Amino acid sequence: MPAGTKPSTINHFDDDDYPAYTMGRAAEMIGATPGFLRAIGEARLITPLRSEGGHRRYSRYQLRIAARARELVDSGTPIDAACRIVILEDQLEDALRINEELRRLAAD
After folding, report:
1. Hey, what domains does the chain have and what are their CATH numbers?
2. InterPro entries, from UniProt (predicted)?
3. For residue 22, what are the β-bridge partners?
């Protein structure tokens, strides 16, 4: 471990769930407004963590989810429907991954 490096911060670069981005930076990265991020938070699509100062912080995983919701909204889908679609897509992806793992285990 490099000198001066804290063990708890070493893997943050690879951690998709680490809340690394401020609201302004997150909005910029996905081409949305901070208001959009607040709206999908209110719709409970994503729940940003809060810094010690109370500011919203977003992870890369949350930004991927938010970007997908933005794509749907940009194509005319109402925000509540877009959030539900993204949740269902995410659940389907998890189910397919689990199914594949179980098939692999059964084949072994």
Report:
1. 17-107 (1.10.1660.10)
2. DNA-bd_dom_put_sf, MerR-type_HTH_dom
3. 57
- Kindly tell me if the per-residue pLDDT of 90 is higher than 60: yes
3: CB partners within 8 A, 6+ apart: none
pTM beyond 0.90: no
The Cα 63–Cα 66 span in angstroms is 5
Q: What is the DSSP letter of 22?
A: E
What angle do helix axes 60-74 and 23-30 make, rounded to 10 degrees? Answer: 50
What span, in angstroms and rounded, lies between the C-alpha atoms of 68 and 88?
12
CB burial class (10 A; 0-12, 13-18, 19+) of residue 86? buried
